[in-house]
């Protein structure tokens, strides 16, 4: 599977799976550039990874190291039960808001390297989340998402 990139108005989307995490981040950023987006326009990064691969904290640290310093994006890590690449990564999706004349971007904290709880710009709102595999985690996850939404709006 390769990467696909599309742009409609201010919204640029890209996603797919190729090689290692570093390969996927590089391909993702290239796709966004082709759509007219800069790394600083990245609003949401959604990563699907094998549930039995290295933990979410390790994946988050590797993503932070691979992203450009000016990136401030919401991050969603989604564990799935499926075979992936050798490092446990299945695929990455990204959304970027490309506007030079619209309202300023607002981010909701806390800021952890390139990651924020939420991004709001104009009519777009993106929230990050780390989905868990535990059956009882849905209440805690839902509560966290609602807090993030409140902080972002």
What topology emerges from the helices and strands here?
Blueprint: E1 3-8, E2 11-16, H1 21-34, E3 42-50, H2 56-66, E4 73-80, E5 89-97, E6 106-108, E7 115-116, E8 118-121, E9 124-127, E10 129-130, H3 137-152
Parallel strand pairs: 3-4, 4-7, 4-10
Antiparallel strand pairs: 1-2, 2-5, 3-5, 6-8, 8-9
Question: What can you tell me about this protein's structure?
Answer:
- It is a single chain.
- The protein is α/β, with parallel strands linked by helices and 153 residues long.
- It has three helices and ten strands, in the order E-E-H-E-H-E-E-E-E-E-E-E-H.
- Strand 1 (3-8) and strand 2 (11-16) form a beta hairpin.
- The protein is globular, with a radius of gyration of 15 Å.
- The chain starts with a strand and ends with a helix.
Please state roughly what percent of the residues sit in beta strands, choosing from under 5%, 5-15%, 15-25%, 25-35%, 35-45% or over 45%.
25-35%
**Oligomer status:** single chain
Q: SSE order, as H and E?
A: EEHEHEEEEEEEH
| Distance between the first and last residues' Cα | 36 Å
Give the rounded overall mean pLDDT: 80
**Major β-sheet profile:** 7 strands, mixed
